[in-house]
Specification:
The protein is an alpha/beta fold and about 210 residues long. About 30% of the residues lie in helices and about 25% in strands. The chain has a 4-stranded mixed β-sheet.
C-alpha cells in the first residue's frame, strides 16, 4: 500500500484463503488490483496444474516476491520461469525469503531447538480447511541460502544484479533473555560473516 503511491498501477497476487479475504476492501480502496490464487494448484503436482501465472508476456516493470517462496511445497523452477516471462525486458524481480544458513537455524540444529515444535505444527493444522481442502500453506517447506537462490534464478534465465543477506526479526513483544542473546549473536555474527544473516535478498533482471 505504501508502494502503490509510487506506481502507475499495482497488482497483488494474494493467497486464496479466507484468512486473506478481509484485505480485499483495503486493496480496492487504494485502487490496487488483487487476484486470489492458489499457487499450489497452478504449479504443484496436480492434474489441473497449468504452470502459468494469469498475466501476459512482458506485463510488469517490477516484481516483488516477499516472504513467499519458502511456503512452496512444489518444484519452484516453473514459477521462476513464469516470473521472467511476465517481466518486461530490463524489468527486475526483487525476492526476499529466510536464509536457510542463518545463525538462528544453525543454533537450532546444533541444540535441537524447535524440532518438536515443527512437528507439533503439522498436527495442529492437520485438519485445517481451505476452500474445501485439508491444506495449510503457512509452513516453511523450503528456505534457501543466498548461493542457492542466485543459482535458481540464474539458471532460469535471469541476470543476477545482487544477492545480499540482511538481519531482521519479528516483533514478539517481551523477549526472554535467551532470545535476546540469540538476536545479539545473530547481529554480531552477520556483521562479520554476512552469509549467516536471517534473510536473503535477491535482485534479478530480465535482460533485453
Amino acid at each position: 500500500m505504501v508502494l502503490r503511491r509510487q506506481a502507475t498501477s499495482y497488482v497483488v497476487l494474494e493467497g486464496d484463503d479466507p484468512a486473506t479475504y478481509p484485505l480485499k476492501p483495503l486493496y480496492e480502496e487504494r485502487k490496487i488490483t488483487v487476484q486470489f490464487v492458489d499457487l499450489f494448484e497452478m504449479f504443484g503436482p496436480t492434474q489441473t496444474a497449468t504452470h502459468i501465472l494469469p498475466f501476459g508476456d512482458a506485463t510488469f516493470d517490477t516484481l516483488l516476491c516477499w516472504g513467499t517462496m519458502e511456503h512452496f511445497n512444489f518444484n519452484p523452477v516453473k514459477f521462476v520461469r513464469e516470473l521472467r516471462r511476465i517481466l518486461k525486458p530490463g524489468g527486475k524481480a526483487y525476492i526476499n525469503l529466510p536464509n536457510k544458513a542463518s545463525f538462528q537455524n544453525l543454533v537450532s540444529l546444533i541444540f535441537g531447538r524447535f524440532e518438536q515444535r515443527q512437528v507439533d505444527e503439522y498436527f495442529r493444522f492437520e485438519d485445517y480447511s481451505c476452500n474445501g481442502k485439508k491444506v495449510f500453506y503457512g509452513f516453511h517447506w523450503r528456505e534457501y541460502t543466498g548461493p542457492e537462490l542466485a543459482c535458481l534464478f540464474s539458471r532460469a534465465g535471469f541476470a543476477i544484479q545482487s544477492c545480499e543477506l540482511m538481519v531482521t526479526f519479528q516483533d514478539h513483544g517481551q523477549l526472554s533473555a535467551a532470545r535476546k542473546l540469540l538476536r545479539y549473536g545473530t547481529r554480531l555474527l552477520a556483521g562479520v560473516l554476512p552469509r549467516y544473516g536471517t534473510d536473503v535478498c535477491l535482485i534479478a533482471e530480465k535482460q533485453a
